[in-house]
Amino acid sequence: MLHPSLVSAVLLLAGSLGAGSTNTRNTPVEAQSLPHPQVLNVGGGQLSPDPQVINDNFAATTTGCPGYSLHSLTESQNGLTAKLNLAGAACNLFGTDVANLTIQVTYETETRLHVNIFDTANSQFTIPESVFARPKASGSSTAKNSDLVFNYDATPFAFWITRRSAPHATPLFDTRISSLPATPIAPVILSDNSTALDGFPLIFENQYLQLTSALPLGANIYGLGEVVSSSGIRRDVGTDGGVGTIQNDWARDIADPVNENIYGVHPIYMEHRFNSTTSTSQSHGVFLLNPTGSDILLLTPPNSTVSLIQYRILGGTLDFYFLAGPTPSSVIEQYSSIVGTPTWQPYWGFGFHLCRWGYPSLAAVKDVVARMRAAKIPLETMWNDIDLYQAFRDFTSDPVSFNGGEVREWIEELHKNNQHYIPIVDAAIAKEVNSTDIYDPYRKGTELDVFIKNPDGTEYIGQVWPGYTVFPDWFAPNALAWWTEALSNWTKGGVEFSGIWLDMNEASSFCDGSCGTGIDISNTSTPFILPGEPGNFVTEYPEGYNATISGPSGNITVNGTLTYGATDSASNGLSARGIGAGNQTGVELNTPPYAIHNANGRLSNHALATNATHAGKYVELDTHNLWGLMEAEATHKALKSVLPGQRPFIISRSAFAGAGKWAGHWLGDNFSKWEYMYYSIQGVLQHQMFQIPFVGADTCGFNDNTDEELCNRWMQLAAFTPFYRNHNVKGAISQEPYVWDSVANASRTAIAVRYALLPYWYSLFANASLSGTPPVRALFWEFPNEPELFAIDRQFLVGRDILVTPVLTPNVSSVDGIFPGRGKTIWRDWYTHDVVKAVSGSNTTLAAPLGHINVHVRDGAALLLHQTPAYTVEETRQGAFSLLVTLSANGQAFGTTYLDDGVADPPGPSTTVSVTAGKGSVKLASKGTFHVAQKLAEVTVLGVAKKPASVSVGGKAAKFTYASAQEKVVLTGLSVDLNKGTTIEWK
After folding, report:
1. What does each C-alpha distance from 513 to 445, 506, 509 come to in angstroms?
2. Active-site residue among 256, 503, 620, 709?
3. Is the pTM of this model over 0.70?
4. Residue of 506, 675, 704, 801 marked active site
5. What CATH number is attached to the domain comprising 936?
6. What is the pLDDT of residues 398-420, one digit of tens each?
7. CATH number for the domain including 184?
């Protein structure tokens, strides 16, 4: 819960990237006492001009930089090593050209190729192994058996990656593009202001790296995040002479702008190529392991036969991993071999979660919990935002409104009811304001030397919710022990949490630089007006809202005659700014010569100063994007100590590659707008690629007011996303699902489906933790040879078997959706089991009255379900199972369900139940040592063409019913032991 929209007008520079960067809806009045930014560089240095000014002063003509030449080649069966020497006079575009480089090429596995280009002196920043453990080569992969092939030209040096199976096809990655005309959309000034770039050679400087690869014209590119993209899940590569995407990689605290950098950094993309001649496709992936701030451009030069991807990086090395695929899901799985598979989620984590910023007291929270139960809307976990704290300080509870003893009693009552509690933890630690102020987390952290410092060794002091703050330094040797003790003391003090919510961890600061250094820090007031207070009332409602029609419920009449474009207000955010860069040399920590497209302007703005130091050996400029990842790891390890034997449940806002090993993610401070409900789908799909699959949005929207119709639709959509939480802003109207009867009814319906599907959800996430397989999928991941699906992100699949088609616009009673498979796949309605009469390869219109979300089941599925969804996940788990089998046209189906205790860390004994259908039978088999106590009580088989004469279970005759309209056989009253399995036959 960060609310950057509240402070953007105060904190952003006047010249920052305009489109989408400032939310004027919640702009506060000018803060009365903003800190002075000139104290940014304690120990020397001044602030630089606005980076937009730097970048917009560029030359329009270009000629060449020298590139590099390869020599001293050493080859082995597993790869090669060579030297790269600067091939001419240095350009010194944005720093000093590095004359001597090393390239190492390693065939690590048959599907993974590692190409690392680094300075031979090893002076550039690389991620320490303690933060990111690089994968090991298999030892069996060689240049002869790899699916990928590294090719190169020695002078000027360039390389390209091909498939062994198609050596003459268009390369997967190709830097041989020096013959392309220089393009006016990507100009740069050279150091002498007289020459400029000819083509796109390799540039490797101490503060600027550049590498460009050709892409097929109009390539299908996915990934590169985190971002709310106006082009949807498929990234825009531009058209003739245009930049389609500028993906800025600088973790940023901001309320979900469109086409700008936000909380996380994930420099991985997947390209999907379709051969129209053979009607087949292949996917591959490219990952750059470099956390330094960067721009990644997707563009198409004028009159070009190719599109381009260009990396512009502020430092570090060019450490690339290429993934062979060839299917979308296999690319994602192979990526997990680099960054790690996702952490195991507890079974209860898949329940419904509820929170808001603005619960004033424990009494208010208790009332919400009671009203949820009275409304019979399942509530698994109650959360608290910063209202919990005393003076906004981490690891506290307000002694009046959230009395520690009362909080303990209430949480214990939750636990007795099989419910859970999660509080927020912000990134910044309050600094004691005077000698009488005793705040143990700060005092102990100072003793253990765990806070980030200024270059002169003094404490780096920013400003966040509690006033002037310090920030944990995760590189500090004692940081983990200190963090573990703070969390342990908190739960011992009464806040007996089941998990932790990490916020503000880009890390964010409300001022620019070490603003508390050398000044009176006793003023702990927030430097802007909080939402809901005079001067900053929350007044916005969703698109199409009409308060005169039906008051707070909005435009609730669903008549099917009005529609609103879900993305009409989206801006591409690119037109206001040029692409070039400035003319500076030397190592400049605070304002690097190349100004990346950080939409906040200076890199230190609403963040930490880039010359802040970590453990005396690293600087924020190099490590900024790692802060959220490292906090998530520390919290995960701390919870293993504080809650031994339990799986850590953590939701984090900021992330870098590999964060899914430690935590899940929510999509940040979105808006109560229909377009943001749509954007939530692409956000969930992005993070499946990033190996952070446990992800979801603030349901019904965070910023602004929701209304009845939007919340109705969103509560149903979010029931089919991994992380399911309703959360909204202080000062907005209440949006708990019981507020409106229609929302309560819709929520009960959707949650019942979700809880029935919990064994399926849990099995999908077990597969993710074991193999990196994405639980939620874009349609084309399962149907990769159907081009009409390549841009679909208004529908999605849960696993391979569940198709979700939500309503994403107001005032409609139907929705259009495409059914993959082009008529060869049978789709059945979840609720009625009717076969859908779908239009092959294009949209089918489906009825969607308010309160109904379309869900369809794919043929060939065998789903073990909870027969009777209950109020909590644990109560649901204690009930019997049912089985749904949907036969394909040839009468077959298959499915597996992974079962264990759902909480043990590391996971303990497990059992996998396999279901195989074919030739008039359904066979259940069990493998594993976990004892499944609950019995299988009901079986439904769809696709049985005629009524059977008899049905048997385990060789004994069984009673059944048959519905010819759905070709449905139903057996009830069973008591099948899933530990032993059985066979169901019909004749």
Report:
1. 21, 15, 8
2. 503
3. yes
4. 506
5. 2.60.40.1180
6. 999 999 899 999 999 999 999 99
7. 2.60.40.1760
